[in-house]
Write a structure and sequence with these properties.
The structure is a single chain. By secondary structure, the protein is mostly helical. The chain is 82% helix and 0% strand. It contains 11 helices and no strands.
Length: 273
């Protein structure tokens, strides 16, 4: 593995993996706490429309997909803030429209041979320097937002009604959380793809929730777990010539399974004693 670090693409993959891991740990915690996992899945699949736009018009994938996803997210936020019971229907609508729109644009792109696997399962080894810069900027923006509005975001995440009574602009922060999630999902798609992005956001968060008692601790520990899983996944993919995205998620899933088994044994032992 060490000799592979002499290659630029491996250096980029490691840097991108760690940046996305930190972003995923932070945003994944917000998604889980706000019970937005299914919503995140809808945004992820809707983002394929942005991928189609980037392919058809020859635009940077991350930028065009981010802009498309932001618009989809604002649309979802406006329609569901006061009508949460419509959330499933709206997500289903945007999910189907986004993917259909993206696929049709890919079909209409002259001479383009669609490599769907790279979008479905990620292409971390193809990350460019410009992608890394974009990821770094997004991470800094997210950290700045958390630094300035952490208490408001915390209040909205756990009790929207109480936050509203305190004078917090709940609709603004609800939308802000969705927007941060949207951009983070687009970035994560570059690493693990459309199909596996929810696993990257939720598995480390679920594991960390077993060991922490606050949202901030969850964000930090989730980011650490994500970095570890990403590194191990990259090592495995390099040594055994495997796909990087699925390798990262498989490592995460195995670790989560071990945690569940240990927890089950621990509870059973305590109950018996």
């Amino acid at each position: 593995m060490l000799e592979s670090l002499s290659y630029t693409f491996m250096q980029n993959a490691l840097i991108a993996g760690f940046l996305v891991s930190i972003i995923s740990g932070i945003i994944g915690s917000l998604i889980v706490v706000n019970r937005m996992v299914f919503l995140a899945g809808g945004i992820a699949h809707s983002a394929y429309g942005g991928i189609g736009i980037s392919i058809y018009f020859g635009l940077p994938m991350l930028l065009s997909t981010s802009v498309f996803s932001i618009n989809i997210t604002i649309f979802i936020s406006i329609l569901t803030y006061k009508n949460r019971e419509k959330l499933d229907s709206i997500i289903g609508l945007t999910w189907a429209m986004g993917m259909s729109f993206g696929i049709l644009l890919v079909d209409l792109t002259p001479g383009y041979n669609a490599d769907l696997i790279s979008y479905l399962f990620g292409s971390i080894l193809a990350v460019s320097t410009s992608d890394i810069i974009y990821m770094f900027v997004v991470l800094i923006v997210i950290l700045c937002i958390l630094f300035c509005f952490y208490r408001d975001i915390l209040a909205v995440s756990y009790d929207t009604s109480y936050a509203y009574l305190r004078g917090i602009k709940t609709k603004l922060f609800y939308t802000l959380i969705l927007l941060m999630a949207s951009i983070s999902i687009v970035i994560a798609i570059k690493i693990v793809g459309l199909i596996l992005v929810i696993a990257l956001l939720s598995i480390p968060t679920y594991i960390s929730s077993k060991f922490v008692s606050s949202l901030m601790q969850m964000m930090i520990l989730s980011s650490c777990f994500s970095c570890i899983f990403t590194f191990i996944g990259l090592v495995l993919s390099y040594n055994y010539d495997l796909s990087s995205g699925p390798s990262i998620i498989l490592v995460s899933s195995i670790f989560m399974l071990l945690i569940l088994i240990i927890e089950r044994i621990y509870k059973k032992y305590n109950f018996n004693t």
